[in-house]
Amino acid sequence: MSTVSTVSTVSTMGLVDVAFWACALVAVAMGVLVFVVDSMARATYALAASFVATGGALLLMQQSYLGVVVVLMMVMEMAVMAVYMVMFMGMNPALMPMSMVHSHRAAIGVAVVTFVALGSGAVLVPWPERRGSPSPDVTEALGTAIMESHMLVMMVVGPVMVATIVVGVLLSSSRTRYDRMGDDLDQPALDPPALERREERR
Amino acid sequence: MAEALEATTGAAGVLLLTFVLAWTASASYAVATGRSGGDAVLHAPREMARLLRQRRRDTISADRLLWRLAGWSLLPVAVLLVALVPLEDAALLTGSLGVVWANTLDILVWAFVWLVGWGANSVVGLVGGYRFLALALAYELPLMFALVAPALAAGSLDLAVVAGAQGSLWYAAWMPVAFVAYLLGVLGFSVLGPLAAPAGRESAEGVLAELSGPDALVVRAARYALLGAGAAVAVPLFLGGASGPWLPGAVWVLLKALLLTAALAWVAGRLPALRVHRLVEPLWTVLLPLVVLQDLVVGIVVVAGR
Amino acid sequence: MEMAPGGIPLAEGDDDRDGLEMDVLVHPLGPLLDHWPGGLELHTRLHGDVVAHVEVQRPASPTHVPAAVAAWDAVARVLSLVGDDVWAARARMVRDQHPGPELDGGGGRVRARLARLARHHVLPHSVTDVLGRLLDERIDASTHRLDDAALASLLEGHDLGDVRLLVAAHAPLLEPSAAGAGRG
């Protein structure tokens, strides 16, 4: 009885290890692809795929909530980021190939150094032995940790982030999509160039 | 061995159920748009036969990889959503986080619909993609807060626990705002009815415009499958899951899912597509605060009931 | 790097409303589209999805459609475009009954639907406005025709979707001059 359970634990451990390495490799490979591909959409969604693989790795560490939230938030963020990239980049959104890197060599240098530093840190640091045992419900433990003692921080950070996003967009666009229609969206939909042309015709 | 067999039959069952839900949604939608009964039921198979034979038509400089990948990924999202639904006591994909997984899957639709619009390298497709994201932000936040309500009341993110916690008073009955916001979100991620602007006819069907042949088939079918899958997830969330007299629980889940699918698709088919800039404002300024209030009410009830 | 991937020239900058570069695109509409006056061609310049500039080209052959029929046809087309299929079919039924100024119940119900859609901003104000005046025969299609410049002014500044709705609603006023043929 005990041998059977040991064998099955070992074999599942093996499977989990393989899956974890697969996730890790996909995450890194997709991260590299971000700089290799030559289109904004591909770069964005390569990054999204990298984050999804990271979420998968977290799931395998039995941090289910963190894993699924990483997938949820990152796909959402990348979808929105693609819009801003296409909107604010100097290049137009047609599928014109364009390089995704600025100052190529320095970027590669910085990226490699950072990766090696963080990676070697993760591998070489003497991790402490586990003391105690994990909470039976890690999701609940996480919620308590974030919400109980840090509730005030969370409540402040949320509005500040929203305000930053809204103000950032407003400051970066001198005239937005719906300015032309007035506050109640009931004005004749005209912007300066078209408005001037209409005056000329009269 | 027995486990593998069980998993295989489970997977086959989920595929079949997704298919039936999609067909139900399509038939009901067709009835609502004025087709007669028999014609409406046969609409889906006819379209299938037509599109399968249609020759694939490409646009210039299309991003084929992302375009095809996104289009063919929408149906699997619907299948996975259906797999989350607990039939009796367990779903095909059980877990303590079913509610969060459902939310994550509907977020994946953001990426795929935008990419379907982007990949074609066409103006109308891209316009549709942008419309979808504007709309998605506006329906997703009410949808997320709507998902909070049943989870809060049941004290769990497990769909089976949420379903079991409802007793005789379904959550739909005392959380009507959350229920409505959820259903609106379902119409949003299936791009149908009042939230169909990203595929609106006045913009040459937007994200769908350049799709042809099998690619068009899978995306069009996925819209109905997503509607059906969203309705199926609403059963454990809001409609008491397997609870019901006389019949076995699994039958009740299926019945409720099919009825809700048909009703939601019918309503969607009756309503015109709303223009995005007119829809976004009420979603942000009216629906979102109402859903947050709904969560507050549920929270107070939960605390008071302790 | 060639600046015309796949033979399509890249979009250029223009004197634009928001100061963002590179978002002008040349986009043709017509001559054949669903729910679109046959033969009408619009050469538009787009800023994103907003039509900034329109050049009109249209066929010269007049059609002889009674004003009331043309008006109800416009209603049906507009309703079809927003996906209101049941009511579009009802509008077509009214059209096929050769309506006069005195409407039967069917026409009245469709008009009530139009009013409701206008209240909920499903249709732009100008669309329901012109449809109402066409149905009341307060504008005479044979005298109040829109010339090319007027049509361009009408459409510029609207987004792609609203342009389709506006064209569908104004279709009865776009017919080439056919004196005396406007009345049914």
UniProtKB/TrEMBL annotation, chain B:
Location(s), subcellular: Cell membrane; Membrane
Transmembrane portions of the chain: 12-32, 65-87, 107-129, 141-163, 169-192, 224-243, 249-271, 283-304
GO molecular function list: NADH dehydrogenase (quinone) (non-electrogenic) activity
EC number per UniProt: 1.6.5.9
Bilayer topology: Multi-pass membrane protein
Keywords recorded for this protein, A-Z: Membrane, NAD, Oxidoreductase, Transmembrane, Transmembrane helix
Family annotation (InterPro entries): NADH_UbQ_OxRdtase_su1/FPO
Similarity remark: Belongs to the complex I subunit 1 family.
Official protein name in the record: NADH-quinone oxidoreductase subunit H
Provenance organism: Nocardioides cremeus
Lineage of source species: Bacteria, Bacillati, Actinomycetota, Actinomycetes, Propionibacteriales
